[in-house]
Amino acid sequence: MNFPSKWFWIVGGDETRFWSSAAAAYVDALPGGAGVTRISSEDELNNVLAAYGLPGPIVRVPTSVSARQFKLQLLAAGLLDQVEAFVASQSRAVQIAYEYSGSFVRTEPMMAAGFAALGLGEAEVDAFFVAAAKL
Fold first, then answer.
1. Could you tell me which residues come within 8 angstroms of residue 102 by beta carbon, excluding any fewer than 6 positions away?
2. pTM of the predicted structure, to 2 decimals
């Protein structure tokens, strides 16, 4: 099988940088002897690499993650105790939602209020959901 885990890509005709499947990032130069594949867009490259379980240049923020993923990411980010203390100080509805939700939706108003209370900006929340989706 020709598996693209160590391929290099020229995306959209931009020959000033190359997408490295191994590094999951753009690199400025090709290693000696490396082959390169041309592809029309980052979106197309994402689709090709996704078929092999590899990340592409476009980071797609999930709209939701499971409760397990969410709470494990809180733990990994060192936020679990802070969030649980925050939830305990909220209305019973918020407490029930946190305890019994099967998933956590990125755009839910309760979610936005909780992340705002933690002082997290949009980019940090996006990064949180991207990381949580990998758990």
1. 66, 67
2. 0.72
